[in-house]
Amino acid sequence: MTPSTIDTITTASQAPIPPTPIPSKVLQNLPTFDSVFRFDERLKSLEASFSEYRQTNPFAEAVSNIPGIVHQYINQQLNEAVRVAVQIQTDRLHDSYQRENDEFLRTIDDNMKRIIKEQV
């Protein structure tokens, strides 16, 4: 056995030491995780730096405009697709009603001719 193993065995046989109670006043005065690392300050600094960068760098402004351009393009394409679909459906309905109308007029014409022949 190595000396470190012996020490471990020796300390393991001792009774555990209970934790020392910490007064609540001490706990209240401890800094928070946020205050230790200053996340709010760092975030504000990053936002300010990014805002300044966007104002001085035309490429950053162009990149930030991309979503709006894409949205506008998609809207135009969608509007055109809907317009074409509506036009196709309108043409189909028009053709269908025109066929029905032509058939109705032929039927009337045939009936009129038949009635005239019967009268003569």
UniProtKB/TrEMBL annotation:
Compositional bias segments (type: Polar residues): 1-14
Domain of life per record: Eukaryota
Positions of region (Disordered): 1-23
Name the UniProt record assigns to this protein: Uncharacterized protein
